[in-house]
Amino acid sequence: MVKISWEDSIFSDVSKNFVNNPNPDLGEKVEILFRVLKGAPIKSVILCYVRNGDENIIVTNYSTGEFFNYYKCNLKVKQKRIHYYFRIHLNNGEIYYYNKIGLSKDPILKEYNFKIITNKSVDWVKTSTFYHIFPDRFYSGNAISKKEDRGYMSNGYKPKKKMWDEKPGIFEENLCLDFFGGDLEGIKEKIPYLKELGVNALYLNPIFYAISNHRYDCIDYFKIDPYLGDEDTLKSLVDALHKEGIRIILDISINHTGIEHKWLNKNGVFFGEEVGGYNNDVKERDYYFFDEDNNLHFWLDDDRFTTLNYTSQALRDVMYKSDDSVLKKWLSEPFNIDGWRFDAANALGRLDDVQIHYELWRDMREEIKSVNEDAYMVGESWIDCIDFLEGDKWDASINYYGFCQPLRRFLNIVSWFQCNPSDAVGFAATTSQYLAKIPKWTTYKI
User: Fold this and answer.
1) Residue 196: closest CA among 123, 129, 127
2) In the chain, which residues fall in CATH 2.60.40.10?
């Protein structure tokens, strides 16, 4: 039989096993437990947290069980976010500290503390199995031969209609302008297949009117890309999915639009050479960043993607605040999608001296949740995005930094992230470290 040390037996977390209400409302009291092996040389355990900018402490009460001793205290939740850790005083006068990263003799960093967050989590996600669909390549519900060629040019490239079993062209050859004919009707036809797999939630790459097959270069957020269907097709798909107990979230890029977006188009003609210059006559021009020489700002210096400027109140209104805004339209009747995955979410509202990202996401969350409090908000981020997971911005993240980077390092696929490879010990350490930063409310059902 393996003997466990008292140090290794210490445990607490923000689950129902150790916090009687892990996701409380403001003003509620919560009971918090701390566990350690019976017979541990502990004099007292103190819970430490910051309240009104100063550290507060609560002395825990002691009780004993068959194998463990338990220390518990009651904490009244007077803040939307409470970060706490435990200070452990031993009989010999030594002091230890304990938070999500583990036990330490040194004072610990607050970013790894336990977190109680009052904002309600989206519980349906925690019991969902998602299936990710790239619409153009999933399934065609209409014969490909019935789909006409897209009659435009983009950056000197002409879109190509391809047969289903052809190989996609490489980026330099096709610039993501080869189309195979997958559509929303095809997804609807495959609902029995998805159910057979045990899927109960879908995540679709963008479906709005765009230039490329990936559709992150949107040219009209209010219109379904006709290659995929129309509003009736989307409504029919969502209704059919909901009837079968399957949720659906849509991908959208609101950090930037395609260069041919109608807000930039002088004549209201969407494609290619007919654009003829930037729109100088209407308020939509203020939706974008221009320099003093009237040059558009391109996201990541890619001239296909133009950066949106959320210092414009008019842009905020059209994108998410007005009742008929982009994000509210598709969340509301008759479409009723179940949430959004936001492309390039870490970049939104950030360009040099303009740094309004936190304010912007708080505002957007409030508006989205006013339509549907269970709408899921997932932000894409290539960097450490823990600040967006504090209950007042995103519900979750596409976590490249916390998962993909450690995994690629372990698999020695490191060129994308510009980092060194690691062994299994390094993979476990970096993954555990990032998991320790994530609030429990964003993860599995608590």
Assistant:
1) 129
2) 6-117
Q: Which residues contact 8 (CB under 8 A, 6 or more apart)?
A: none
From the list 76, 85, 84, the residue with the least C-alpha distance to 30 is 76
Percent helix, percent strand, percent coil in the chain, to nearest 5: 25, 30, 45
Residue-averaged pLDDT of the chain: 90
Assess whether pLDDT exceeds 70 at residue 268: no
Annotated catalytic residue 106: no
Say if residues 85 and 34 touch (Cβ distance below 8 Å): no
Residue 238's nearest CA partner among 332, 328, 144 is: 332
- 343, 367, 390, 395: which is the annotated catalytic residue? 343
pLDDT tens-digit readout, 296-338: 999 999 999 999 999 999 999 999 999 999 999 999 999 999 9
Cα–Cα distance, 399 to 362 (Å, whole number): 20
Q: Which CATH number fits domain 123-394: 3.30.460.10, 3.40.50.1970, 1.10.10.1100, 3.20.20.80?
A: 3.20.20.80
**Phi, psi at 260, each rounded to 5°:** -90, 10
Segment 219-234, tens digit of pLDDT: 999 999 999 999 999 9
Classified as helix, coil or strand, 136 is helix
Residue 352 designated active-site = no
Strand 61-64, strand 68-76: pairing: antiparallel
Task: Tell me which of 243 and 263 has the higher pLDDT.
Answer: 243
Q: Which residue out of 178, 183, 260, 380 is catalytically annotated?
A: 380
| Residue 354 pLDDT > 90 | yes
